[in-house]
Design a protein that fits this description.
Largest sheet: 7 strands, mixed
Shape: globular
Distance between the termini: 4 Å
Radius of gyration: 12 Å
Length: about 110
């Protein structure tokens, strides 16, 4: 990975995630591979949620992620895959890049 992209589409150096609390979620075939990718970049997730491969996020899923995000530190970043960012209901992400009640979002770009 060489950068992360906020939900609003803005690209930022991956370095900016290091040292910040990061929580990850994804619905891919091997979620541990995504977690390991973050770790290899010096980003050790403080919390993690895995959904089944090709998961179609429901409103209940998004509400559950919102509750989960509210329990995280205020400066936490939620990291997900570009695929998951694309298939989650659009209402989950604001155009400013904030996701799920104030936590910043990131999708790792390869």
């Amino acid at each position: 990975p060489d950068a992360w992209m906020g939900a609003g589409g803005k690209m930022t150096e991956l370095e900016s995630l290091r040292g910040r609390p990061v929580a990850g979620f994804c619905g891919i075939g091997n979620p541990e591979a995504f977690r390991e990718t973050l770790r290899r970049q010096g980003i050790d997730p403080i919390a993690w949620r895995a959904f089944p491969d090709h998961h179609r996020y429901t409103r209940d899923d998004i509400e559950d992620l919102r509750r989960w995000a509210r329990e995280l530190p205020a400066d936490a970043v939620l990291a997900t895959t570009q695929k998951d960012l694309t298939i989650a209901p659009g209402a989950a992400f604001s155009s400013s890049g904030d996701i799920l009640q104030g936590a910043a979002s990131a999708t790792v770009r390869f």
